[in-house]
Amino acid sequence: MQSIYRLKKNYQYNYVYKHSESVSDGNFIMLYCSARSNPTKVGFSVSKKFGKAVYRNRIRRQMKAAVSAVMPNVAAGYNVVFIPRKHCEYDFATVDKSVVYLLKKAGLLS
């Protein structure tokens, strides 16, 4: 995913946590709020409860790949954070389907 589409600073994540609306399915929670930035910026938060670093990094990479594929179709002017729920195994097809579903449910995907 390109650098201009990422949330990078802690205060950006804190703003989303404080002012967000949420949508969820069985696999992920998506927090989103409006922002002044023109391109929509996306962040990923994976808790240590999810497992060791290898598993956390794998799910983070899968989420980044799924979001970068649909980023051209996402509405501008939002900050979004994806949080995976504790689950056994995530394969890429499940991650991709959940990301698209959550973006449509929030009305951010055209």
What does this structure look like?
The chain is of the alpha+beta class. The chain has one domain: 2-Layer Sandwich (Ribosomal Protein S5, domain 2), CATH 3.30.230.10. Helices cover 39% and strands 20% of the residues. It contains 3 helices and 4 strands. Strands 1-2-4-3 form a 4-stranded mixed β-sheet, with helices on both faces. Helix 2 links the parallel strand 3 and strand 4. Helix 2 packs across helix 3. The radius of gyration is 13 Å and the shape is globular. It starts with 9 loop residues before the first helix and ends with a helix.
The beta-strand count equals 4
Unreliable sequence segments:
none
CATH topology label: Ribosomal Protein S5, domain 2
**CATH class value:** Alpha Beta
Look at the structure and give the mean pLDDT: 92
